[in-house]
Amino acid sequence: MNSFIEWLEKLNASDTRVRAVLRRSLSFKPGTYFRAAPYVEPFLKNEENEWRREIYYLVAGLWALHWREGRSEQPPSLGKASATHQLATNSASTERRFIALLDADHDQLPHRLRQMVSLLKDQPIDFGEMLKRLMYWDDDLKRSQNAWARDFYRTLNNEKNTEMETSE
User: Fold this and answer.
1) Which of 36, 91, 164, 168 gives 20 to 30 Å between its CA and that of 27?
2) 6: containing domain
3) Together in a domain, 62 and 101
4) Percentage helix, strand, coil, to 5, in the chain?
5) Residues 27 and 105 in one domain
6) Can you give the pTM of this predicted structure?
7) Looking at residue 30, what DSSP letter applies?
8) What is the DSSP string of 71-127?
9) Same structural domain for residues 161 and 114?
């Protein structure tokens, strides 16, 4: 688990208002809901990069939105969780939303992520991995988006190959 997510879990263990405040912060541009500052800023310490700060606030809010008690195993990436959701629900809209997320720019990203995380409410998600991927969202080679796309389509294809093998 990522140290930031561990930090949030620790804060949550002593004060459940943490989740409510961080969920509320999703209604604002990341980093502008100042009631969330006591829960995020101490972890950021001297971080001056505005994009990195926004991503920490965004991931904190998404973590709070998605939080479930008692998850102990290593959760999957957002790509794998999205594929698992699509396989479980047989919904083609999951893939459309996932592709829209991968195409999102800075301004669209918070909205698209909030939609996707809400859709995946029954799937565990690795928020530490999400934080790491979002830090490099604007990479020219789109490594983060490609990693999630690979996870998504490999998970779908592995399941389809397994189904084909069992039906033969």
Assistant:
1) 91
2) 1-67
3) no
4) 70, 0, 30
5) no
6) 0.91
7) T
8) --SPPPPHHHHHHHHHHHHT-HHHHHHHHHHHT--TTTHHHHHHHHHHHTTTS---H
9) yes
- Residue 44 CB neighbour total at 10 angstroms: 16
Q: Residue 117 is encoded by which pair of tokens?
A: 């995380």
Residue 60's CATH number: 1.10.520.40
At residue 70, the 3 state secondary structure works out as coil
**137 Cβ contact list (under 8 Å, min separation 6):** 55, 106, 109, 144, 145
Q: Among residues 45, 67, 89, which one ends one of the domains?
A: 67
Q: Are residues 83 and 35 in the same domain?
A: no
List of residues 6+ apart from 20 with CB closer than 8 A: 64
Query: H or E element: which one contains 64?
Result: helix 50-66
Q: Per-residue pLDDT for the chain (168 aa), expressed as one digit of tens each?
A: 589 999 999 999 999 899 999 999 999 999 999 999 999 999 998 888 999 999 999 999 999 999 987 666 889 999 999 999 999 999 889 999 999 999 999 999 999 999 999 999 999 999 999 999 999 999 999 999 999 999 999 999 987 666 555 555
